[in-house]
Every structure is written in C-alpha cells, then in structure tokens.
Recover the amino acids of this structure.
C-alpha cells in the first residue's frame, strides 16, 4: 500500500514538474514579468493559473465524491478560520515570490536546471520553515 501511494505521489510530482517547465512557471523571469504590472506586463501566466484552477476544482469535486485509492478515508483540511498567521504567511509568501520569482513548486523544479538561484531559494525556504517551527514550538 505504501509503495503504491509513494509511486502515485512520484508520478503526480513528475507530471506537475513537467507542467511547470512547459508553462515556463519555473522560469523566474517569466514569473516576474507577470508580477510586474508597471511595465512590460506578461499576462500569459493568467492562462496557466486559470487552467490549473479549473483542473484543481474539477479534481477536488471528483475526489471528494469518490472513495480514496490508498487510504481508508479522505484527509481534507478542516480549518476555516482566517487568523494573523495565515495573513502574515500569505504576505511573506507573496514578498518572497515577488523578490525571487519563485514559489516552492517551481523552485524545486528549477533545481533540475543546475542553476544556483533555485538552490539558494530552496535552502532559504526550508531554513525559514524550520526557523518558524522552532520559534512557534518554544
């Protein structure tokens, strides 16, 4: 069971990574051009996000109306509260994305290109996550 679940996760991750590469979402210049509304705005990633949102919506509807393949029950989030941690996290995520041109998925995909920038970003992302964990558990 664990092997099938791990294999399924691996396959989905590969498909996701290929999608990021094909759509150029792993290219920080492309992403920064999308985020730059002041000049030379590139709206093409709107189509990528729209397609991803449509697929995610349909997939979520399908998954929640069917039995899970590798678990006894679904493990869906139950939190509905918007608190300061969610808002602060979203702000920090947006600042990091805007400064670096990477968010976590594309940064990990970018590791395969051999460039230093995604490596530095991923190390900083993991380090920041661990720092927050240490601070909040203290």
């Amino acid at each position: 069971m664990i092997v099938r679940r791990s294999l399924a996760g691996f396959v989905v991750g590969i498909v996701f990574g290929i999608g990021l590469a094909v759509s150029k979402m792993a290219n920080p210049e492309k992403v920064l051009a999308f985020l730059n509304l002041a000049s030379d705005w590139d709206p093409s990633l709107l189509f990528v996000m729209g397609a991803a949102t449509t697929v995610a919506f349909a997939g979520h509807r399908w998954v929640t109306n069917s039995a899970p393949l590798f678990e006894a029950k679904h493990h869906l989030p139950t939190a509905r509260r918007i608190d300061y941690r969610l808002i602060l996290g979203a702000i920090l995520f947006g600042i990091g994305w805007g400064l670096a041109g990477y968010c976590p998925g594309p940064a990990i995909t970018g590791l395969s290109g051999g460039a230093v920038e995604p490596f530095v970003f991923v190390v900083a992302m993991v380090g920041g996550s661990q720092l927050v964990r240490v601070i909040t558990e203290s």
Notes: The chain has six helices and no strands.
